[in-house]
Design a protein that fits this description.
CATH topology of the largest domain in chain A: Rossmann fold
Largest interface: A-B, 57 and 61 residues
Largest sheet of chain B: 2 strands, antiparallel
Helix content of chain A: 40-55%
Strand content of chain B: under 5%
Helix content of chain B: over 70%
Radius of gyration of chain B: 26 Å
Number of helices of chain A: 16
Oligomer: heterodimer
Number of domains of chain A: 2
Distance between the termini of chain A: 37 Å
Strand order of the largest sheet of chain B: 1-2
Shape of chain B: globular
Number of strands of chain A: 8
Strand content of chain A: 5-15%
Number of strands of chain B: 2
Strand order of the largest sheet of chain A: 2-3-4-1-5
CATH architecture of the largest domain in chain A: 3-Layer(aba) Sandwich
Order of helices and strands of chain B: HHHHHHHHHHHHHHHHHHHHHHHEEHH
Distance between the termini of chain B: 64 Å
Chain lengths: 331, 473
Amino acid sequence: MWIPILKKIKDDISAPQAAWIISLCGEGGLGKTAIAYEAVIRYAASAGFTRVGWVSAKTLQLLPDGVLLRDGSSELHWSNLVKKLADQLDIHLGDNSSGWISDFQRGIRSLSQGERCLLIVDNLETVDDVDEAIQYLGSNTLVNPHKILLTTRHALLGKVQYLVERRVKGLEFEPALRFIRSFGNNVIEEASDDELRPIVEVTEGNPLLIKLFVTRLLTSHLPLAFVLPELQAIDQRLGRNIIDYLYAESLSILEQHCGMDASHWILNAFCPLGAGDSVSYEALRTYSGIEDEEMFRNTLRVACDLSLIRTSKLNSLYSIHSLLWKFVCET
Amino acid sequence: MLSIDDATIEQKIQNIYATKAGFRQAKDRRSAFERVLRDYYERLRTSQSPSQEDIAQSLHALYGALNTPELVDQQLLINFISVITRFVENAGVGYAFSKAFMDKAISVYRLAGFSPIELYQEKADLLRLNQMESAEREQALMEAKTYAEATNNAETLLKVLLSCAVYYTEVSHYQKALQVCQECEQLIQRNSQLQKYQPKLLTFFGMNYTPLFKYQPAKSYLLRAKALLDAERDRWDEAEGDDIWVSTMETIHHYLGRIAEGEGHVEEAMHYYIEEYRYLQMFAQEPRARIAFHHLRLAELLISASLVEQAREHLLLSQEIFDAIQFSSSGRLQVSLAWAALYSKEGNYVRAREYVLDARAEARNKHFPRGELWCLVKLFWLELGHFYLYRAIVTFIQALGTWRHGELRRNEGFRLFGHYLLQVLSIPFKLLKRTPHTVMGAGTLNARLNTCICPLHQLPASSSKRCNGIGVS
């Protein structure tokens, strides 16, 4: 799906000099992590990297505003991340955890000449996160011949030395069409490329938006010729907030199918939790307060069909996307 | 394709706002918060040691509720806060988060007309995790004291004064701490119902005489406190009272251990520390920070006895706990110093020096004057032990510099320095007489300790691996 950007990343990580820090930046829902994963699987070995370490820098107790946990414990947080990286890279750290960061920088510098490490730091949520990553991984002293691959929502070009930035955009036309058709519905599969083109254009190839739109199309049973112009017209008015329209439409359908109360209750059940946090079936039922189990199951099923609620671990955990959490819960 | 007029689009956009508002209705949100908080509350209330994840999620929900307290039943919120504060330190959820949470909680308590005394005390306790000495921490205690004085309740006031004494002890203002202890003593004398606090107060006296090298009065106070507690064991039967009994006993044994160690009686010190561990296991909630300090003290003792491998195991346990609870105050600094001592014992001067210097920098950042002086003393002996005389002299001068702004200034600097000098100068005589003797920062002489007698090291080799996390969950 992402051949062009993958090719660029391949060039970046294969280049014998410069581009020591490669940043994949783009908004939510574009698949930055998936691209990074694909790039590492495909090209890390052929680019000459002998060791690969991958950590997610996402703060465990991230609050909706993402700010509160930033202070105070960043050194400890990075100390633990560095330990995880060191374990994967087989770099020995000393006993004293206070010295792990400097041990890591020293350890990576003292690797033999043929050794090259690729460090992937995923989910750097804020600019502060990136600054810390650079500071704690010891950018200037660490890079060459090693490389760092970051995924972030923030543009860093000009803010960080030795950095090349690759902006992750939506899917190109052909991959986007394949993605749309992957939903496996006859109506969609039989549609011509030209008929589907407006979907790609209005969603700018953002996989999350495509998914929400196609789900709405399929569940509303309204003709594409009716649904699409509406989306296009609203896109012109709302621009980047088009996702609000898609969520509002899907939530309206949920209300129509399951009743206003049950719809509100099931989604509000996620509000006391963190954005993106998962809950079990039983907890979700308790928190929603929907006493009639049949009604709860039906509401849950429809919400999942509309891609409002996501399932994971064999349907044992339920969550909502952080953007939907913002839409429903943010005050 | 159909064309859509502006009015329809406008209507659609209005629908977005309407849907958003519909889903954000207070009544739905209120029910969700109440159900989630009640569920977490019940889980925490009935659990002895909830998982870190459980606590973190509970705090998250609580933080949301504190942001919009009107959404939650006030009594439920306050009950929840009382339960959660018991676990905050153990949770390792991040200092900044916990502090912001505590500030919010105080403001909610005040709005609801409840007295925030306990929360101020909790806040002061929490601030300790990040920085020993801070104006904010003292301020929190002063706020608590002001509220306590207004209540005209002697017991409440006494509890706050005891918290103040703890603070002054921790920031090395031992004289100030002793003054507060005397205030407490008078309060107890005036109010006979406060007699039950006598053992705790005696312990505090002992705690403050110990770092001033006044070992005899310190020991005397601690032993008096212990005798009182032993005699009153049956009276401390309620859950809360039992915790006070246990924690005081634990503190007494800890300090008796430190005094024995200071006097060079390492075996006696070890026995006290092991006894201390017995009390640590009696806490209703696992006191992880205390357990971490316990392992640290054992490690230090074992290092001084050159039992390096056993020391390493205790040090690793201590470090794991400090890291897990994100205890970023003096604990990790002391662990660094202990690693330095261990590496020095192993002959690795470079690494030992590096760790001491890092620890010193951290002590300065944390405004921990005792820690800074301690680092300099360690560094001095390290340099001297490896015959770097020039560096040793420079370090000595730097240590004396704390007279102007640090530890020596605030606590009878002349007397402390004189006492320490005496310790050093008496080394040759003590060596000749084969008297056990400890020179702080340098080591213990003429004392023998053959092995660690803690439960971890007394288990058979095959099972000791399994029990490696002894006391640590």
